[in-house]
Amino acid sequence: MITLRISNHLFEEMLRDLRRPHEHAGERVGFMHCRQSSLRYGSLLLAHKYRPIRDDQYLEDASVGARFDGSSIREAMQTALTEGTSVFHVHLHEHAGQPRFSGIDRREMRQIMPCFVNLCPERVHGALVLSADSAFANVWGANLAPEGQGPDKLCLVGPRIKLWVNHD
Amino acid sequence: MTSRHARQSFLGPQAPNTFASCVVAIVGLGGGGSHIAQQLAHIGFLNVQLYDGDTAELSNLNRLIGACLDDVQNRTKKVDIARRMMLAVNPDMRIETFACNWQLAAQSIREADVIVSCVDSYAARQDIEATARRFLIPLLDIGMDLHLIDQKPHMSGQVILSLAGSPCMKCLGFLTEDNLQKEAEQYGAAGARPQVVWANGVLASIAVGLLVDLFTGWNGLRSGAEYLHFDGNTHQVSRSPRIEFAPKTCSHFPPDEVGEPVFH
Predict the structure, then answer these.
(1) Are A49 and B107 within 8 A, CB to CB?
(2) B135 in reach of chain A (CB within 8 A)
(3) How many domains does chain B contain in total?
(4) Residue B92, domain member (yes or no)
(5) Are B102 and B112 in contact (CB under 8 A)?
(6) Can you say whether the dihedral through the CA atoms of B167, B228, B79, B93 is positive or negative?
(7) A99 CA: distance to closest CA in chain B (Å)
């Protein structure tokens, strides 16, 4: 069982960053770091930090919303190593309601996520897409489906608790 | 929406699913916690964890909801009394009982989406809040006390909502070094604290109202931490002025101090 918790404060911080316009990129991306704790039957991921991708790390590529250079991924990997964190790639679909990954998102994640899993196989990593009021995630790990899978529970913690439970 | 919950349909179409999916932990199944347990069963919460190592005693019967004389004679665990009461309301509930200190089931309580703390000491509150903050779990705390003012009894109580990133019980001035120190000095000498069913009921009902609001947002009024004060003599509940003067961000539980403390 994998549970991901994100505080409302961090959710709002990520929204603020991802909504900033960029000179040439169509959208912004960042990395969310989580501490991983054990549950009786699984893992609990506690999001605690967001690291935006710097303006100069975006590459010009009109075929996708955002393309970024390797240094941004290396920095996220370094944080994962030195601080012992799980890493989530984060981006925004600017609408209300439940977001979903696009085909391009899924293709890109299949390339990026193995880097993190191979680097820190003892931890679960993932991708998170936000909307104006919701979120959707996939997680990857050494003992999880190679194509990624949804967390069993995703919880936004704030004055209004938002909970998504995978009943599969 | 089943007919069982038709009268609370204003909570929104998603409310029954939310109540069925979330996990609520109640720490302390005495006068306050037993009220909370009963109400959660009526509302439709399905997944509840109960933490209390105590058994029913005769002195509990003035306030322990669901308890009867047989429970005193049989030394029934308080968690089992609550469980029996909740299942009588809704047999579909999934109730886990932990007849021990919650610290001995530390991995279990992390699964809770909200913790309701119904303990009777400042030190116990401090411990629960530290864990709730580290694991990003909203905490609702209730408690009552009785003091002599000019030789007359004055009953008071509080309901506090502690949320990650918002003022904590120390920020709100409820937990202070002074009251923790005084409590420690009087440990074992204070005797049984006054507790009455009606004050426990008021405080528990308010806490459950906040809990339902947390999960449904049905009234859209709240925006963060809450500190409500109950005057048991005048029977009035008011927002503590401390909520206005508390720091907007909490310095006692920084955002990056989550999960188990580790050394890298």
Answers:
(1) no
(2) yes
(3) 1
(4) yes
(5) no
(6) negative
(7) 18
Amino acid found at B115: I
Q: Considering the entire predicted model, what is its pTM? A: 0.95
Taking the CA atoms of residue B66, residue B108, residue A9 and residue B180 in that order, the dihedral angle to the nearest 10 degrees is 70
Per-residue buried b or exposed e for A108-138, using 16+ beta carbons within 10 Å of the residue's own CB: bbeebbebbbeebeebbbbbbbbbeebbbbb
pLDDT digits (tens, 9 = 90+) for A95-110: 999 999 999 899 989 9
> Does B215 reach chain A within 8 Å, measured CB to CB?
yes
Q: List the single residue in A with minimal CA-CA distance to B253.
A: A48
Burial of B189 (0-12, 13-18, 19+ CB in 10 A): exposed
Q: How far apart are CA B198 and CA B157, in angstroms?
A: 12
Whether B251 is in a domain gets the answer: no
Q: How many other CB atoms sit within 10 Å of the CB of residue B46?
A: 18
Does a structural domain hold residue B170? yes
How many residues can be counted in chain A?
Answer: 168
- CB-closest option in A40, A46, A159 to B136: A46
- Structure ipTM: 0.94
**Residue B105 covered by a domain:** yes
Concatenated DSSP letters for B193-240?
A: PP--HHHHHHHHHHHHHHHHHHHH--S----S-EEEEEETTTTEEEE-
Closest partner residue to B135 among A40, A46, A49, by Cβ?
Answer: A46
Structural domain including B96 reads: 3-245
Q: pLDDT digit string (tens) for B157-187?
A: 999 999 998 999 999 999 999 999 998 887 6
For the domain spanning A2-165, the CATH number is 3.40.140.10
> Cβ distance B242 to B70 under 8 Å?
no
- Closest alpha carbon within chain A to B219: A160
Domain ranges of chain A: 2-165
Q: What CATH code is carried by the domain that includes residue B199?
A: 3.40.50.720
Tokens of B34: 């037993």
Cβ–Cβ contacts within 10 Å for residue A145, how many? 11
Asked if A148 contacts B7 with a C-beta cutoff of 8 angstroms, the reply is no
Contact call for residues A134 and A144 (beta carbons, < 8 A) = no
